[in-house]
Amino acid sequence: MARSTQKTRLSDACAAMETIAPLRLAQSWDNVGLLAGDLETAIRRVLLCIDLTPVVVDEAVRKRVQLVMAYHPPLFKPIHRLTTPGTDTAALLFRCIEKGIAVYSVHTALDAAEGGTNDRIAELCGIAQAQPLEFVGGEGAYKVVVFVPAEHVDAVADAMFKAGAGWIGDYERCSFRTPGTGTFRGGKSTNPTIGRAGRNETIDEVRLESVTPRSALPAVIDAIRRVNPYDEPAFDIYPMAKVPTRGIGRYGNLPKSVTPATLARRLKKAIGAGYTQIVGNRDQQVTRAVICVGSAGSLPFKLSLSDRDVIITGEIRHHDALTIERHGCSAVALGHWSSERPVLEPFARALSERLPALEVIVSEADHDPFVAV
Fold first, then answer.
1. What does the pLDDT average to over 113-138?
2. Residue 301: how many CB atoms within 10 A of its CB?
């Protein structure tokens, strides 16, 4: 089929990658998103890799790509100079900028995303319903609460709804109303709508509350001030956290019990890893896998682990391996790079589906720095 001639801008590619790996899912310490590039630049070709290395930059220049998506952020710690020649990160970024190649990173955003790095390994293990080890939160909507005289509550609610409040899923005009008693005493400069200044007043009121998206807050507040009869309307705004659904790591039941040794061999073949390592009893039957691509660290220990669990990761530090032994479970280390690399092919397909005019290439020069002997 002929490829579409429609132009794709760097901003379009960034927006598409945001839908695959939402940046809000990244860990707070991470540096994800567009690291270098002009958002208005037209792009035709993107190269996907795990690490931005000298040979990958050579490949990007040779294949005339305009964007490199490097899973690991090459710009992580502060860089004080961008100079060349050299092979350090600063020199690599300098060369990319010089050649008009933008650089984007997904890292822990893709780890947490649906269909991301951890889900890919879970899929290869045959896990049907993998759950996150640690949820990633995100800002949700706001709850706007206003206190209204009982006879005016419908008018205020209608104004808030027209301004954008009151949506919960596919339901509109949603609110909750609680009757109560309000008290006040106006100062000398006030002009109360109800009662008189300088006198204690008691009035039947309704606490009216409704969910409001951030974008509608200004309009909803303006509606409250316009329609509420009080000269000083009392209202509160509460941030609401979204119900978390995505997060770092995965765990789930294996389709049937298997030994860590057998599982290691299967995964090694499936992802083309050069080597694997096992911690614990390699012949113990396990029924649940705990997955943390890259480096697991202490994340798996958030679960109550037993000898029926196997941790699947990229690399394991010595003292973490001792902790795994103390928990009585086992672990399979696939290699840091090898545990993350399998996500690139599905990422490429997902990006091509969103931007058919863009040619998406998985790097051939990208490689595991460790060699099996």
1. 91
2. 18
- Which pLDDT value is given to residue 2? 43
- What kind and span of H or E run contains 140? strand 139-149
End-to-end Cα distance, the chain: 44
Name the DSSP letter for residue 173: S
32/170: higher pLDDT: 32
Average pLDDT rounded to a whole number, residues 41-61: 97
Q: Which residues contact 368 (CB under 8 A, 6 or more apart)?
A: 273, 274, 335, 337, 338, 341
Last residue of a domain, one of 210, 241, 272: 241
213 and 279 housed in the same domain: no
Alpha helices by DSSP H, 228-355: 260-271, 318-327, 336-340, 344-354
Among the listed ranges 2-16, 32-46, 52-66, 234-248, which one has the minimum average pLDDT value? 2-16
What pLDDT does residue 139 have?
59
Q: Is the pTM of this model over 0.85?
A: no
Q: What percent of the chain has a predicted confidence (pLDDT) above 90?
A: 77
Q: Which residues pair with 311 in a beta bridge?
A: 290, 331
Total structural domains in the chain?
Answer: 3
Q: Are residues 299 and 178 in the same domain?
A: no
| C-beta atoms surrounding 182 within 10 Å | 17
Q: Is 289 exposed, middle or buried (0-12, 13-18, 19+ CB in 10 A)?
A: buried
Within 8 A by CB and 6+ apart from 213, the residues are: 141, 142, 164, 167
- Other beta carbons within 10 angstroms of residue 136's beta carbon come to 21
Residue 4 is predicted with a pLDDT of: 47
Q: Which helix (H) or strand (E) holds 315?
A: strand 309-315
